[in-house]
Amino acid sequence: MGIAAGSLVALLFRFGSTFLWAVIGVLTARTLPVEDRGAYASAVVFTSAVGGITSLGAATGYFVANRKTDPAEVAGHALVLSLVASAVSALCGAAVWLLVPGEIGRLGLLAGLLMPPNIIRNSLNGVVLGQGRLVRFNLVANLPVVIGFVLLALVLLGWSRRTAEAALAAWTVAQYLGLLPFLHWGRSWLLWPLRHRPRRDLVTGLLRFTAVSGLAGVVGLLNYRVDLLLVVSLDSREGAGIYASAIAGAEALWLFSSSIAMASFARVGAEAREEAARITAAGVRHTLLIVAAGAAVLALVAPWAVVVLFGPDYRPAALPLRVLCIGTLLYAPQSLLNNYFSNQLGRPAITLVLGLTSLAISVAAGLVLIPVYGFVGAAWATTLSYLVSGFVAIGLFLWLAPARWPDLWRLRREDLARYPRLARELAMRARRVGG
């Protein structure tokens, strides 16, 4: 599957996943008391974030795609390390259950049991992405969400006891069931630790790469949410609610860039340096074209869009949404450039430094602008941080890669010709499937 078709496949999966998450949000909001929904949502968000950050997904993808290490060997090592991390998280949950009485303790136990499937799935799915198997990667990533929706619906709509514990227990069971495809697709991976001795150099390499990429993940998570935290602290909770709606609208534009980054991940890691740079530059050009068009439309319809989606009380979100459209466009190529830094060069520390730069600027500018301009100041602070870190990332890419400045923005005739060719290719595939 080519990068263009793969990007479209990834985009469709992401649209489907985003819609399903929204439905789950509505379901839990309609069936759980406000306090219980808050406890359930906090546990899911926390465990998902920790599971993603502590997993070895970035490292396994790099060693499979770039270092050409046997996928079964990488997966076997990742599985052993993931089981160790899973045991630690489960023990922490059990400790909370033993030490804290009542509902909080039981929720702590469920949270501790919820992290292992997230850690294991993300680690093994990095091997799948490193092999370039996009459909399989997205199926494994989204299956737990589908199963979770089904179990949540059964529990919350068919059982009289609608509590955070019941919802979190249903979600936890779904995450374990979501690991079942690995029993079929990854049987050799699961058996590898039983038939071979671990390699110390590979264990060290996976842990070292994960330590840096995991810290970069923490910084990235803070970077995406620190502006909202500053609005809560320096403006008001009402302003934070309005600003959160603007963030949700602007970040939807990243669905395109993240899909292209996902589709090109394996090839950027596997190809020679010059070809990887060419693929990255082409991805940046297409990302800027698509996101610029989307940002222009979203900025134009912002006053109507926020009212239709969130209600008339959120009308003030239109201005920060327009400002964030600028920042989102400037930051859109970042995931593609990070692909090159981490998966081609094997230097996730560059991603970490870029994230720290953006975070520092966002906090500093937010402390100055939010007390004066409120949540609109937060939007300008975020846009400024994206502008600076984005140009720093581009400068590093041009310094480290065999590429030139025009390669990143000057559209070529073949770039525009790819779209009708992709449409014809998809139409032919659809006819073959239909026939």
Automatic annotation (TrEMBL):
UniProt keyword NAD present: no
Query: Its domain of life?
Result: Bacteria
Membrane-spanning residues = 38-65, 77-98, 104-120, 140-160, 166-185, 205-222, 242-266, 287-311, 317-337, 349-373, 379-401
Bilayer topology term: Multi-pass membrane protein
Keywords, ordered alphabetically? Cell membrane, Membrane, Transmembrane, Transmembrane helix
Presence of keyword ATP-binding: no
Where in the cell is the protein located?
Answer: Cell membrane
Instruction: Please report the name of this protein according to its UniProt entry.
Output: Oligosaccharide flippase family protein
Origin species: Tepidiforma bonchosmolovskayae
